[in-house]
Each structure stands twice: as structure tokens, then as C-alpha cells.
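Entry 14. Structure prediction run on the chain below.
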Amino acid sequence: MKRGREGEEDEDEEEQLDILNKKKTMSLSIKEGAVASVSTGAGSYFITPYALAIGFNNFQIGLFNSIASLLPPLFQYKGSRMLETWNRKKLITTFVTLQALMWFPFLLLAWMFWKGLFVQYLPYLMIVFYTLLAIFGAVAGPAWFSMMGDIVPEDHRGRYFGKRNRITEFVLLVTFIAGAFALDYFKTRGMVLLGFSFLFFIAGVFRLISASMLAKYYDPKFKTTKDYFFTYGDFIRKIWKFNFSRFSLFYALFYFAVSVGGSFFDVYMLRYLGFNYVTYMIVVLSATVFSILSWPLWGKISDVCGNKRLMTIGAILVSAMPFFWLFHSSPLYLALIPQMLSGVGWAALGLSSSNFIYDVVSKPKRALCLSYHNITVGIGSFVGALIGGLLAQYLPEFAFSKLLILFAITGILRVLVALIFIPHIDEVRKVKNVDISRLVLRYINPIERTHNLLLVTNRFVSKGFKTGDNFIEKEFKKLWKEISF
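Output returned:
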């Protein structure tokens, strides 16, 4: 009996330690995500302006985006298979470190352009370097996705990832603002390439810091099962049969539609409208501001109403966005209307897609299914970006920019894909039949939120002191879950 009790106590201690380590990692992951966002804000967000600065034409922009969309998901499959022999944390830290190091060759490209060395080949060298950077990040992706799925409790995923994304996007926002002002400062002094080099150096350093933080993650026990594997051919042959594969097909075709024009909003602002870097930064970052504001609402809707409904909202908003670029070219208008739709729409789509995969796929198959999903989406993005690049290069010029025709095409394609495919995706969790409009109104209405908080206070006063201190904590948690975002 004594040994049995000791065994139970050991199991309880191990379980408590597991819970504590998971909580620590959830907190650390938010901090690491913020550091990684500095890398993204100083690096990836300035890739298209950098490409234009070293002489990319419209076709090369399309080619760049198409290759960067296709190859990383293919290597992500390799990352999922490496989980059979690699520890998840070791896999993540190794390839994130390699990704960080790939920012430094961009400094060499800037120097070569400044010196006039192999200028005609620089666009293709940049495509190679950035594709390698994306590939290294992609290999680490399935392991990170699998590990975080084991760490974050199922009933808190929406709110946790909503909070994490809100914080990381705020850091990204601040970084991008600072980067745009720095770049504009260098440009006015005729040293724009030095400005880009400074930003990419910052991106590499902060991604290295992110890698060191990832090394401190807690990695719960994980083992692949013998029957977890199925081929991509099996996945494609049964793509209409299973809920997850129908979801992947929708995303692949939706990203095809997005990629036809998605690469050229930046080109339109910088090359055709002639925005300086500060104006460009304001328009681009307005989407991030709206995204940050919407994360708490989308997290609540994901947990309460399910991810399919959130996916539908996101698809509607993202599909509507390109049409609003046709009506006006004022920076203020672009920042407040199309970019608002883009920010809140992509936030909803991003959160719903990751949480939907967690819901629909079993733990041992998550990494593999994520890689197959991203390969399928990557193929759609590759074809869409290639077609978009050809259209942008060879469409005839009209009285207005030919890119506006591209925006109309991408908008129409997005609407058609959403209308045809979303009805065939099934929600897998038991969710409440809640009126989403009420949740939205409660979120944006400060009067109702204040009223709800007064109800909490009143219930504490009327009952809390009569039933003991524990009531206050329990009642607060229950009511906060009902009214908070």
C-alpha cells in the first residue's frame, strides 16, 4: 500500500511539474514571439521595397513570390518526417538559427549593387537567399506547431493564441514604424541600401535571440506512432472525402486567388502612386493596427462559436478588400478602408485555420498534416503568384494602372472560392449557437462592457462576503469567462 501511495504521489508530482512547465513555456512563447516579431518587422516587411530598390521588375516580383511560396512547404514535409528521429526542440532551434543567419547575405547583395557588381543577376541571387531563409523556417514549422499543440490547453487555444498574436503584432507594428523612419532617413541622404542593410542586420540578430529563447521551451513527451504516416498521394486522392483535406483544398484555392494580386499592393503604392517609405509604412501598418484590435474578439469567437464561423467571417472580409482599392488612391482612404478589411480579415483567417487544424487532426499526425496542408496551399500560391506576375508584366496599360485590373481579378476569384468551398467544411467541436453580432456589439460597445463589470461587482458585494472568500475567485472566473475578450 505504501509503495502504491508513493507511486501515486510521484505521478501527481510529475503531473504538476508538467503543468507548471507548460505554463512557463506559454509565457515564454509570448516573449519569444515578440522578439521574433522584431526580426519580421525589420526584415520580411521590407523585402518587397528592397527588391524594388535593387531593380526587380513586375515579372521578377511575381517569380520571387511564387518560388518563395512553393519550395518552403515542400521542405516542411521533410521537417515533419524528421520528427521520427529528431527531438522537436532541437529541430526547431537548429533551423531557426540557420534561418537567422540567412539575413546576413542580404548585406552582401546591397554592397554588390552599390559597387555595380553582377547587377543583372542580383534579383535571382536575392530569390535564392530569401527562399533558403524561408525553407529553414518552414522545416522548423511542423515541430513548433506540434509542440505548442501539446502545451496549450484545447479550451484556451483561441484566447491564448489571440493574446500571443496581439502582442507579437504590436511589437511588429512598432518595429516596422521605426524601420520605415530609419529607411526614410537613409534615403534622404542617398544611402537607402545602407538603411536596408541596417534593418536586415537587426532582423538576423533578433532571430538569433529568438532561437536561444526557443531552446528554453519545455518539450512534452512526444512519440510518433507506427500508423501515423500516409503519403501525399493518399491525401490528394481523398481530398474531397475528408473534412481536413476539403479545408486544405479551400485554402489552396483561396491562396491561389490571393496570390494573383497579393504581391502587387506594395508595388502599386511604391512604384505607381509614388508613396515615400513613411506614407507606405502608415498604410501597410494600419492593417496591423486593426488586426491587433480584433484579436481578442476573434479569440472569443473561436472558443465559443467555432472556427468555421470565424473562417467564414475572415474569408468575406479578405475577399471584399481588393475591390476597395479601385475607388480611391488617397493614403488616408487606403489606410482606413481596404487595410481595415485586410487586417481584421486575415487575423480571423489565420486564427481559425491554425485552431481548426488542432481540432480536426490527432496529435501524432499534426506535423505531417500541417506539412501536407502547407504544400497544397504553397502550390496554389505558386501558381497564383506566377500568373499574377505575368499579368502584371504583360497586361496593356490603360488610362489607369493595369494593377487595378489585377486587383479586381483577385477579388472576384476570392469571392468565388469562398462561396463554393466553405459550405463543404464541417465544424468539429461542439460549439454554442451564439449570435456573433451580439459578441461583436459587446466588444465594441464600452457602455455594455462597463455595465457587465458593474454586474460582477454587484454580485461580489451581495454574495461574496456571505459565502466565503473562495466564492469571489470562483464567481470572478465564471463571469470573466462570459464577458471578457
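The radius of gyration is 24 Å.
Filed with the rest of this week's runs.
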